[in-house]
Amino acid sequence: MAGPRKALLSADFLSCVRVGPLVKIRLMDTEQKLNILAESSKFDLACACKPKDEPGRVRGVEGRWIYPAALPNGRKMFLLKTLQTNTCVNDCSYCPFNCQKDSRRVTLAPDDLAQTFRQLHHAKLVEGLFLSSAVVRDAESTMERMLATVEIIRLRYRFKGFIHLKIIPGSSEAAVTRAVQLADRVSVNMEAPTPERLARLSAKKRFHEDIVNSIKLINKARWQLGRQNTCRHTTQFVVGAAEESDKEIITATDRLYQAYELERAYFSAYQPPAPQEQSGVLFQDAQPLRSQRPAAADAPTFMREHRLYQVDFLLRRYGFARDEILFDTQDRLPLEKDPKRIYADTHPELFPIDLNTADREMLLRVPGLGPIAVRRILKLRRQQRIRQLEDLKSLRIHLPTVAPYVKTPSRSPISTASVILEPVANETFQEGLLF
Asked: pTM for this structure?
């Protein structure tokens, strides 16, 4: 009996559930495994601002593993989002699937996962794939299985649509290069901004040797492939799990943009566990650092994440330098006011600016003006002189926000004290894929 039992325990479709002192063995079909792995994969996401009428962390109505992702152009794309396996050798303290957790472990074989994706795509339920994985045995064997899945989808089924593939830290250069060849988007999760912070989360992960080196290999592969390759890469930080400061995260993010042409970074807030949710919910399962975290970081966790996204946009799209971002005495971003407004309020020598003469760079530094609004203002200036603030109404600009920081020939700027600002409590969030 030892031989068949050993074979069962190594089967891809096996699920083991501990019941008291016994282990109950149960065979699972592909759909059952996909339900578990896709449910697990929902934790690999990040949050950003959203309109008030938009839902948050939700899935498509057609199936639990079909995830609606928002593209940069505003279009929605439905993805099959899943893990290859949730069996993991790593010990990340915030993760419910680390090697120290007693969780249900399942793995999808490449053929099974690829065939399921093909069926969903043919049924027009999904348009793309987001594939991640826990680390089974080692990085290379895990990447081998993930690459096999994507190769079947690309080569056998001739799928030309969107694929986002996670790179397992510590993967070989050959595996990383193949991933860049096959995928439209790849990503390596930084998790923490420094080696010291990462050591608080995991004793096994190596900051430079595994994570940073994988990012270097991605960038190298993209350059070697040249114009033939359109793959882009992103990363993610876990916010608040390692007692890191906002300044540390912003510094690491900016360095990635400058050195490795990162498309963008994502930030996912660590949440202390809810009493009723102790069954494998990422950022709500493990709590080794909760008693050590500053009290100020608990309640406004998502607002802190939100401020990091705002600074990220200032760095990527608004021309701000890292040393222009203001932090408090603990190197945290103030939560009561957005960082762009703080910059404007602390630089009275620059504001208000003249709407008729300010260049694009200065217009982008005005609170309430983004790239689209600035483009509209510049177009309007080519057609006419802006004589009053009301000339901007047709440009869909929120005038009460802009008013204290601009001037026109017909009027002086409004004092910031007279402007009614929307309270922080009204700010809402959109949660979406690492995209």
From this structure: 0.77
Residue type, 246: D
Residues 209 and 24: their CA atoms lie apart, in Å, by 39
Q: Residue 95: name the closest of 339, 271, 275 by CA.
A: 271
Q: Is 209 inside a domain boundary?
A: yes
Domain that residue 61 falls in = 30-317+428-433
Task: Tell me, yes or no, whether 294 and 148 share the same domain.
Answer: yes
The tally of domains found in the chain comes to 2
Residue 3 belongs to some domain of the structure = no
Hey, what are 299's tokens? 């309640």
User: For 434, which DSSP code?
Assistant: -
Q: Which amino acid is at 392?
A: L
| Mean per-residue pLDDT pooled into runs of 10, the chain (435 residues) | 36 47 55 64 48 43 61 75 84 73 79 91 90 90 96 96 94 96 94 94 92 95 84 92 94 95 89 45 33 44 90 95 95 94 96 95 95 95 92 90 90 48 36 32
CATH of the domain at 150: 3.20.20.70
The answer to whether 75 touches 124, Cβ cutoff 8 Å, is no
Q: Which two tokens stand for residue 254?
A: 């900016």
Same domain? 130 vs 249: yes
